[in-house]
Amino acid sequence: MPVIIDDEKCGKITNCPGEGLCVKICEKGALEEVDGNVVINPEKCDDCDLCIQNCPNQAISKA
């Protein structure tokens, strides 16, 4: 099951204390930066949960 990104908690990459850490650590490239926002490509997500575990804003979760 792909992850869900809470846009309000995320606050865009410019406001992220991890400076888009989720995008950087996603081994499958399922998370991308689009116009400063984090966007998920669910077809690439392999449910590793690295992004959930490392999001400083706790903005990423499972559906």
TrEMBL record:
InterPro entries: 4Fe4S_Fe-S-bd, 4Fe4S_Fe_S_CS. GO terms for molecular function: oxidoreductase activity. It holds the Pfam family Fer4. PROSITE patterns: 4FE4S_FER_1 (PS00198), 4FE4S_FER_2 (PS51379). Residues 36-63 form the 4Fe-4S ferredoxin-type domain. This is 4Fe-4S ferredoxin iron-sulfur binding domain-containing protein.
